[in-house]
Amino acid sequence: MKLSRITVLAFHEFRRIKYEGEELKPSNGYVLNSAYEMLLPKLNVIDWQAVNKKYIPNVSDNKDVTITKISTTLNMKESISQGIDDLQNLFKRDFDTDRVFKSFVVKLILFAAILDLNGELPLKKG
Question: What is the pTM for the complete model shown?
Fold first, then answer.
């Protein structure tokens, strides 16, 4: 999967917040699994369009030019892979588009998880 620079930054930021002080650095697949499972009870009430537009501390404004986009394999649980497929279909409707890339879904999962940890996750009204 090709991950944009901002998605790579989101992986770094989520890992920093969630696993700071841990001796072993969790893989990107483990980080994604953790972020998804954390959001699972809220998936249907998250305002994904607001998440996409939200400022993400240490991600949106990161000036570190050494961090670049990457192509990687994300090892994840089958249930997480299915959940990403389900979100892909949801995002087609929510964003009124015919195509949504999995890398976009991964980015929004990480953004939402960071916002949730910071107590700033936007939820749908009503």
Answer: 0.94
